[in-house]
Specification:
Layout lengths: L1 H28 L56 H8 L2 E8 L13 E5 L4 E6 L2 E11 L4 E5 L7 E8 L2 E5 L10 E7 L8
Antiparallel strand pairs: 1-2, 1-8, 2-3, 3-4, 4-5, 5-6, 6-7, 7-8
Amino acid sequence: MKLNIILAVLVAVLGWATCKNFKKTQTADAPAVPVEAPKTSPAGLPGWNASRVIEGNNPDSAGTYQVKEPPRMVTVPVDALPPATASHKLYLSSGYWHMNMAFQPSDTTVHHNYQSKWLKFRQDQTFDILIKGKVVDSGRWNWDVTKNELYLSCKDPYINNTWAVTDRGTVMIWKGNTSINVTGIQVRAVNAGALPQEGQ
């Protein structure tokens, strides 16, 4: 009889311990309640501040999220730098620059916002944005020699920013990873002597 009572107590204690352990495991494996991420753009400024991070658990649809918003507008301090060097003025003002490709991890279609655009830089540190040979926007530019960054100030949110530059003759790669530009966008700009003829 004593043995039965001891066995019954032992089964009850083991059952309670197992049940308690099972509840802990279930709680640990349960999906976390999503917490809304803080807004990175100040109030009143449209667009996004940096390369978007998609939160949540959706393993079967990796790569299907697309963020199709322009980057937020920033103030580009073109006047905070000394005037661009004569060599940079000559380099940029020779011909037209076609923004023929762009990449951004959170928007794989971002290149559509660049491919139709051509830039014409002038030695007075102004520039035009052209689409199909017509000026659609104008702005001002400068070049930070110490950081090798191009400063572009205009109304087009996809171009207005500071860009870290890797230049190889007639090709420049602009990278959106400066102290002002945190978009993560990369743009390839290729120099051409003239604008393409209509229909090309």
